[in-house]
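hiii, so i know i said id send this last week but things got crazy w the move. better late than never?? heres the sequnce for the chain we talked about at the cafe, plus the structure i predicted for it. fair warning i was half asleep when i ran it
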Amino acid sequence: MTDLTANLTDPSWAHSELSIDQQLALTTAATRLAADFDGIFGAETIERFLHSSYTQFATVGSIPHFLPLLAERFARQRLQALARVEGHHRDGKPVVLFLCTHNAGRSQMALGFFTHLARDAAIAWSGGSEPGLDINPSAAAAMAERGIDITGEYPKPWTDEVVRAADVVVTMGCGDACPIFPGTRYTDWDLDDPAGLDLPAVRPIRDDLERRVRALLDELGVPARS
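okay and structure toks below
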């Protein structure tokens, strides 16, 4: 296997100001990703995705301590998407991508419902055209009332490979900023943005999302949890 440490600690790398702990964390993340995608992607591809994912979160000012973890999670999702696009992963499961502006409210609630209701029968991702910093606390509280925890999620952007891997792209308020790829099914859900709303005002949005997600699962032929 390629020595990943040399690349991650190279002073020519854009984030050479990283602490030793962060460099080691990224090296460990790259090693885990290399093991997970062994035989599918080489070290160069994995490093490129990990570095660009790290840059994304560093740019928006995420907490430095969590940056390597966020970068690894995002890079893994992107590599999973790329594997589907390139035909390395064929499990027959439908893939749905939920997009909104900040990926902090609507798309995260939709993702929470979809993942909970579909269980392992389908795959869902989410993203935003202008990702925020944190999950909307009112959205998280509203989902908790349904027994669904979305606090472990994080706002992130959409990327080309993630959009191309989706069978259905659900847009919610991102307008012209939403990506368009030929051959991909798109559907727009007209929903209020929960940003700045209190819990009582978010509940109707949550309930509307649940109805829409259940209908989408039915269209996809995916049995929903009762």
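btw Helices lie at 4-8, 20-36, 43-59, 67-85, 106-118, 137-144, 160-165, 199-220. thought thatd interest u
miss u guys!!
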